[in-house]
Input
Amino acid sequence: MKTILVDAAKAFVVNGKVNEDLYNLLETYENPKVILTNANEEQLVEFGIVDMPYEVFTLKHNPDKTDPKYFRKFLDEYNLEVSDVVYFEHSQEAVDSAESLGIATFFYDSNEKDLSALKEFLDSNLE
Output
């Protein structure tokens, strides 16, 4: 079963609170979920990425998600392959970084918050 990689700030967490609509969508999937962030300890608190319903993974900017090494380190730590995960992210640079490794990735526009398009991506990539 594939793991859903969830962008933290500006996607799952907005203005310090969990995006309830997004959370409700994700809860319709039995797949494991991991929240990905660049945040260090202070930023986790500042952005409200605390007491999350899913595990949180961060490399504390060493490197950031814009560097493919971030995703390689994540995959290695969780003993996963690129084909074992799907990812959605609000930063085009991080999307490009993940895609450069072959990770199925969806650009989640944090202004549009198009949950229908995200659901379509998840449905087609979790099969």
